[in-house]
Amino acid sequence: MTEKEKKNGSVYSTDPICGMQVKADSPYVLDDCHRLIVFCSEHCQERFEKMAPDVDPVCGMHVPASSPYTLNADRQLLRFCSVDCRAVFQRKRSNNRIIEKRDGKLV
Questions:
Q1: pLDDT tens digits along 13-64
Q2: Which residue pairs, CB below 8 angstroms and at least 24 apart, start in 24-33?
Q3: C-alpha angle 22/24/26, rounded to 5°?
Q4: Residue 62: enclosing H or E segment and its boundaries?
Q5: pLDDT tens figures, 74-93
Q6: Which of 92, 62, 103 is nearest to 80 (CA)?
Q7: Domain limits, the chain
Q8: Confidence of residue 101 (pLDDT cuts 50, 70, 90)
Q9: CA 21, 55, 28 angle in degrees (round to 5)?
């Protein structure tokens, strides 16, 4: 396994901040939409959250600044976790514009 190891019948994950092996049932967990991220301490969890301030507007997942899936929307750079979430956002945004034009509102 890459992220998880079996040790004495327990499942372990690697803390993304310090690299420590942490039991999967740690109280310091971040539900990041597509995955659970496990931390060894509150300190590491807080550091991770500060490092990844961007949140995908579709799924809520923390997105690193290096994400290649971006979109300029209303003079704001949005970051997405995947090409799929970016496409969902674009589709919803396009549908909203069509509805606004039909209602006679300006875009």
A1: 899 889 999 998 899 988 766 678 899 999 999 888 777 568 888 888 888 7
A2: 30/62, 32/60, 32/61, 32/62, 33/59, 33/60, 33/61, 33/81
A3: 70
A4: strand 62-63
A5: 888 899 989 999 999 998 88
A6: 62
A7: 1-51, 52-107
A8: very low
A9: 30
Distance, CA of 101 to CA of 98 (rounded, Å): 5
In the three-class reduction of DSSP (H, G, I as helix; E, B as strand; rest coil), residue 102 is classed as helix
In this predicted model, which residue has the larger pLDDT, 105 or 56? 56
Contact between 37 and 24 (Cβ < 8 Å)? no
Q: Count the helix, strand and coil residues of the chain and give each as a percent rounded to the nearest 5.
A: 30, 25, 45
Contact assessment for residue 63 and residue 49, using Cβ atoms and an 8 Å cutoff? no
The amino acid at 26: S
